[in-house]
Design brief:
single chain, Ubiquitin-like (UB roll), 252 residues, Rossmann fold, 12 strands
Length: 252
């Protein structure tokens, strides 16, 4: 009797496993688990893709593939092929739904290349595009950068400068419209001072360095002082290692 129990246990375990495998196979081929619904999560109002475009890009096989065996990596790869898509979250919701959440790149500026081609720039300094009418229209324009590794380094400096400017600026006084690179003067920012005035701020070649936040704080003080006393500023010469010089404009 003592030898019979282990044998019976083995047989019983084998039967349980066989039934489990049979059940799994049946589930994989059951029409109850065929993918029939693709659910795209709520998109932002200014989303570069609408839910229909996301679904078409995902190309999920409907009514032919079980949710169990659905190849998520292929779907993710197709979605990431769009340059606007930064990341994707795919969730299987049994019995018949695949949920898609798309995380988009957030442009912080536009880069104009030597040939006049426009590309979006994200917070990491990565380029993507193409530029569309659906994108933001109030992004600052970066241009004049050289090509190659030197241009890539300067682009990172420009992005860091824009981030620092936004963190240390008086919003109503200076909104950067352009950030221009020049071999002699370095970066020059064009900002809105008053509706009838545009101010050029010569920042120099070291913008984006550790001294940049202090520099923008000083520039901001100049803007606030000028506005409080109705002084029409035309140009500001600023550098992390130099005094700030202000050139005013004549009122007509």
């Amino acid at each position: 009797m003592r030898r019979t129990k282990p044998a019976a246990t083995v047989i019983l375990s084998g039967l349980v496993m066989a039934f489990a495998i049979a059940g799994l196979v049946a589930a994989l081929h059951s029409p109850l688990f065929l993918v029939r619904v693709v659910e795209v999560s709520d998109q932002p109002l200014d989303s570069p893709l609408d839910p229909r475009e996301v679904s078409e890009l995902a190309a999920v096989p409907l009514a032919t593939t079980s949710l169990f065996s659905l190849d998520l990596k292929s779907i993710e790869k197709r979605l990431l092929s769009n340059q606007w898509v930064r990341d994707v979250v795919l969730t299987k919701r049994f019995p018949q739904t695949l949920a898609i959440q798309v995380i988009y790149r957030q442009p912080v500026a536009l880069l104009q290349g030597r040939q006049g081609v426009l590309k979006y720039v994200d917070g990491d300094g990565s380029l993507f595009g193409p530029v569309t009418l659906r994108g933001r229209s109030d992004l600052p324009l970066i241009h004049g950068l050289p090509q190659g590794a030197a241009g890539e380094k300067l682009l990172l400096q420009a992005v860091e400068a824009l981030r620092s400017w936004a963190a240390h600026s008086w919003k109503t006084a200076n909104q950067v419209s352009q950030l221009v690179w020049d071999e002699e003067e370095g970066f020059t920012a064009w900002t809105a001072f008053e509706p009838s005035y545009r101010v050029s701020v010569i920042l120099g070649p070291d913008v984006g360095s550790e001294a940049t936040p202090e520099l923008f704080t000083r520039i901001d003080a100049v803007f606030q002082y000028s506005v409080s006393r109705s002084i029409p500023v035309r140009q500001i010469y600023a550098d992390a290692n130099k005094k700030i010089v202000v050139r005013t404009a004549r009122r007509s």
